[in-house]
C-alpha cells in the first residue's frame, strides 16, 4: 500500500509538469494578439509600462525561459501578480474558500438525496417511487444547468420568497442549499441511477440470499450486506465529481452571485489576465489529480478484493 | 451401522434435543410465473426429516430439489416464484402461515442452509470472521469480543487450521475447500436443529469433496441434527444418507431407506440413475444414460411425467399420474409398476 501510494504520487510529477506546460504555452505563447491591448483603457499603454511589464514577465525571452521562471516562483508558493499588480495568491485565497463551500454543499446534497432515491427505488423496482425517480432524474439530466438555476431562483427566491435569490458575501449555509442543489443536480440524478441499478442487481445476489438465510433482520441485510457492496460504484462517481465541483462552477456562481473560482477564471480569460488563468488552472489540475488518487484509495478501502501492491 | 444410529438417536433424545419429527414438507406446490408462461416447478412434494437423520434429496437439475429447499428457508425469489399450495411444518407449525418476523427467527437457529458455491454465497467485502460473529452479535446480543471468541471456536470445529489467524481473512483469500468449511461454520453457528445442504460439494475438487462430506456427516452426528442433503451425486448419497427421496419434475418419485434403494429401486427413474453410474468391472462399455430430456415444466406430459423416457412405459402411464404409495416398510414409489420392479430378481 505504501509503495503504491508513493508510486502514484511520483506519477503526479510528470502529469503535473506536462499539464502546466501545456496551459502555460497555450495562454502565454499561442494566444494571438498583443498582451497589452486594452490594458490601459482607450489609449495604448505608455512605453514605460510596456517595458516594465515585459521585464517582469520575461516577455522578451523564449517561452521555455518564461516557463522556467514561472515554475521557480510557483515552487516557492508565489503565483505572481496580475498586470495591475494585484497578488494572484490573494485572488485565489479569497475565491477558493467560496468554491470549496459550494462544492461541499453540492456534494452532500448529491450524496444524500441521490443515494436515498437510488436505494429506495432499487429495492422496489417498478414501484411508484422507482418510476418517480426514473422520470425526475431523466428531467434533471435533460435540463441544462442554467435552466434549473434560473427556474429555482425565480420560483423559490423571487416568487415564493422561501430563500434568498442570491448568496451574500458571508456565504451562509442556508443560502448555499439552493445553489448547491442546482450545481449538484445532474450528478445527483446519475448517482440515483447508478445506485438504483447497483442495488437491484445485488439484491438478487447469492450473498444477500445468504444474509437472509442467516435470519438477519431485513434492515441489517439491506443496510450492511447490500449497501456496502452497492456503494462501490457510487463512491467512485462521487469522488470524480468532487474533483469537478472543486474546479468551480461558472454558471451556478454567475446565477447566484457567488465569488468563486469559476467566475474568477472566466473573468481572467476575458480580460486576458494570463498569469491568473495559468495559476488557477494549475491549482485545479493539482486538485483533480489528488481527488483521483483519493478515489482509487477509497475504492480499495471499500472492496477488499482490490489490493494495490 | 443402523443399530449404532438408533442408539445414538435415543441418546440424543435424552440429552435434551427434541427427538422426532422436526420438519415436514406436505404436498408443497410452487410455480414460477414468467413472461413465457407458468412453470410448475414443485407439484406436491412431501418429505420429512427427523432429528439425527440424513435425508438425501436426489434429482437432476431442474427437478425442483433446490426450489423446495428455498421455499423451506423462505428465500424463494418472489416473483417469479409463488407457493400455490401445501405446508412446511417445523415442529408441527406451518411456516408458510407465519409472519415474516416469526419465520426470520427460525432461520439460522432452527433451520440453517449451506449453499453450493461458497465464493458467491459469502459476502465478498466482509471478513469471514465478521460474517460468522455477526450472528452471535445480532441474534444473541453478544459483545464483540465474545462473538469473536465463539466464531473462532466455530472455525476450529470445522477444522480450519489457524482459525484465529484466518478470522480476519476475506472469502477470496480462502481456498475452495476452506471456504466451504467457513460456510458450514457460519450455518452451524447458532446450533440449528435442521441443516439443509444444497449440493455442498458440487463446486469443489473431488479430493476435497470427500473431506467436506465427512465433516458434514461428523457434525451432523455430533449435533444430532436433521440434515437434508440435496445432491445429484449418487456416490455422495450412499456414504452419508439414511433415507433417500428421488425427485423428478417437481415430484417425489421414490422414497426409501438408502440400502433398499440401492438394492432394489422401485422406480424406473431410480433404476436408470443407478445404471448410469460407471462401473469399473465393465470397462470399455459405453456409459449408460437415461434417454431423452427432463420434461418442460411449462408443459408436463399427461400421466406419469417420466413416461416419455421410461423403458417400461405402458398405455396406463400416459393416462394416469401414479400417486406416491407405500410399498413396504418405510418406502414409497410413484410408479404403476413398483411392485413388479421390486419383486423382480
TrEMBL record, chain A:
It holds the Pfam family BPD_transp_1. It is a multi-pass membrane protein. The keyword Membrane applies. Gene3D superfamilies: MetI-like (1.10.3720.10). Residues 96-299 form the ABC transmembrane type-1 domain. One of its GO terms (cellular component) is plasma membrane. It comes from the Bacteria. The keyword Transmembrane helix applies. It is found in: Cell membrane. GO terms for biological process: transmembrane transport. The chain crosses the membrane at residues 12-31, 102-120, 132-156, 176-195, 277-302. Keywords: Cell membrane, Membrane, Transmembrane, Transmembrane helix, Transport. Belongs to the binding-protein-dependent transport system permease family. This is Oligopeptide transport system permease protein. It comes from Micromonospora avicenniae.
From TrEMBL, chain B:
Gene3D superfamilies: P-loop containing nucleotide triphosphate hydrolases (3.40.50.300). Keywords: ATP-binding, Cell membrane, Membrane, Nucleotide-binding, Transport. Residues 23-274 form the ABC transporter domain. GO terms for cellular component: plasma membrane. GO terms for molecular function: ATP binding; ATP hydrolysis activity. Pfam families: ABC_tran, oligo_HPY. InterPro entries: AAA+_ATPase, ABC_Ni/Peptide_Import, ABC_transporter-like_ATP-bd, ABC_transporter-like_CS, Oligopep_ABC_C, P-loop_NTPase. GO terms for biological process: peptide transport. The keyword Transport applies. It is found in: Cell membrane. It is a peripheral membrane protein. Belongs to the ABC transporter superfamily. This is Oligopeptide transport system ATP-binding protein. It comes from Micromonospora avicenniae. The lineage of its organism: Bacteria, Bacillati, Actinomycetota, Actinomycetes, Micromonosporales.
Amino acid at each position: 500500500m505504501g509503495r503504491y501510494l508513493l508510486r502514484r504520487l511520483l506519477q503526479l510529477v510528470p502529469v503535473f509538469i506536462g499539464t502546466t506546460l501545456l496551459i502555460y504555452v497555450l495562454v502565454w505563447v499561442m494566444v494571438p494578439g498583443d498582451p497589452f491591448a486594452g490594458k490601459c483603457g482607450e489609449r495604448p499603454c505608455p512605453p514605460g509600462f510596456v517595458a516594465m511589464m515585459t521585464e517582469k514577465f520575461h516577455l522578451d525571452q523564449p517561452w521555455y525561459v518564461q516557463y522556467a521562471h514561472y515554475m521557480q516562483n510557483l515552487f516557492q508558493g508565489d503565483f505572481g501578480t496580475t498586470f495591475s499588480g494585484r497578488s494572484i495568491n490573494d485572488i485565489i485565497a479569497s475565491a477558493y474558500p467560496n468554491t470549496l463551500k459550494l462544492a461541499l454543499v453540492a456534494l452532500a446534497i448529491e450524496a444524500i438525496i441521490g443515494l436515498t432515491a437510488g436505494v429506495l427505488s432499487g429495492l422496489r423496482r417498478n414501484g411508484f417511487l422507482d418510476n418517480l425517480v426514473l422520470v425526475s432524474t431523466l428531467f434533471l439530466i435533460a435540463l441544462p444547468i442554467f435552466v434549473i438555476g434560473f427556474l429555482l431562483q425565480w420560483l423559490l427566491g423571487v416568487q415564493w420568497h422561501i430563500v434568498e435569490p442570491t448568496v451574500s458575501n458571508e456565504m451562509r449555509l442556508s443560502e448555499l442549499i439552493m445553489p448547491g442543489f442546482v450545481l449538484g443536480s445532474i450528478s445527483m440524478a446519475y448517482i440515483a441511477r447508478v445506485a438504483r441499478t447497483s442495488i437491484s442487481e445485488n439484491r438478487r445476489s447469492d450473498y444477500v440470499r445468504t444474509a437472509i438465510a442467516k435470519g438477519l433482520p431485513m434492515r441489517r441485510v439491506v443496510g450492511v450486506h447490500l449497501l456496502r457492496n452497492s456503494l462501490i460504484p457510487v463512491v467512485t462517481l462521487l469522488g470524480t465529481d468532487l474533483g469537478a465541483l472543486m474546479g468551480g462552477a461558472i454558471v451556478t456562481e454567475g446565477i447566484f452571485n457567488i465569488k468563486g473560482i469559476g467566475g474568477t477564471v472566466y473573468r481572467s480569460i476575458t480580460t486576458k489576465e494570463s498569469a491568473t488563468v495559468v495559476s488557477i488552472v494549475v491549482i485545479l489540475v493539482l486538485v483533480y489529480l489528488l481527488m483521483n488518487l483519493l478515489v482509487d484509495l477509497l475504492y480499495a478501502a471499500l472492496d477488499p478484493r482490490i489490493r494495490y501492491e | 451401522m443402523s443399530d449404532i444410529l438408533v442408539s445414538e438417536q435415543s441418546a440424543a433424545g435424552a440429552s435434551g434435543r427434541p427427538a422426532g419429527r422436526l420438519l415436514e414438507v406436505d404436498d408443497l406446490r410452487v410455480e414460477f410465473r414468467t413472461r413465457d408462461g407458468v412453470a410448475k416447478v414443485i407439484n406436491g412434494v412431501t418429505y420429512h426429516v427427523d432429528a439425527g437423520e440424513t435425508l438425501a434429496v436426489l434429482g437432476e437439475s431442474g427437478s425442483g430439489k433446490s426450489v423446495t429447499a428455498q421455499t423451506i428457508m423462505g428465500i424463494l425469489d418472489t416473483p417469479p416464484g409463488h407457493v400455490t399450495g401445501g405446508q412446511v411444518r417445523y415442529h408441527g407449525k406451518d411456516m408458510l402461515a407465519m409472519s415474516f418476523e416469526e419465520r426470520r427467527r427460525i432461520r439460522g437457529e432452527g433451520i440453517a442452509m449451506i449453499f453450493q458455491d461458497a465464493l458467491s454465497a459469502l459476502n465478498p467485502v466482509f471478513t469471514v470472521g465478521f460474517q460468522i460473529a455477526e450472528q452471535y452479535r445480532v441474534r444473541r446480543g453478544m459483545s464483540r469480543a465474545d462473538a469473536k471468541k465463539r466464531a473462532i471456536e466455530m472455525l476450529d470445529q470445522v477444522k480450519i487450521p489457524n482459525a484465529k489467524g484466518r478470522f480476519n481473512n476475506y472469502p477470496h483469500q480462502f481456498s475452495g475447500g476452506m471456504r466451504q468449511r467457513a460456510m458450514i461454520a457460519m450455518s452451524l453457528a447458532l446450533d440449528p436443529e435442521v441443516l439443509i445442504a444444497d449440493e455442498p460439494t458440487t463446486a469443489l475438487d473431488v479430493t476435497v469433496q470427500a473431506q467436506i462430506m465427512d465433516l458434514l456427516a461428523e457434525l451432523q452426528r455430533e449435533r444430532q441434527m436433521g440434515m437434508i442433503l440435496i445432491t445429484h451425486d449418487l456416490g455422495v448419497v450412499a456414504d452419508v444418507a439414511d433415507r433417500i427421496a428421488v425427485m423428478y419434475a417437481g415430484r417425489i418419485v421414490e422414497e426409501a431407506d438408502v440400502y433398499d434403494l440401492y438394492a432394489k429401486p422401485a422406480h424406473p427413474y431410480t433404476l436408470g440413475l443407478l445404471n448410469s453410474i460407471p462401473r469399473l468391472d465393465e470397462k470399455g462399455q459405453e456409459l449408460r444414460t437415461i434417454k431423452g430430456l427432463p420434461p418442460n415444466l411449462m408443459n408436463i406430459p399427461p400421466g406419469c411425467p417420466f413416461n416419455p423416457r421410461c423403458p417400461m412405459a405402458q398405455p396406463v402411464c400416459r393416462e394416469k399420474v401414479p400417486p406416491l404409495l407405500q410399498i413396504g416398510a418405510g418406502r414409497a414409489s410413484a410408479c404403476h409398476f413398483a411392485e413388479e420392479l421390486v419383486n423382480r430378481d
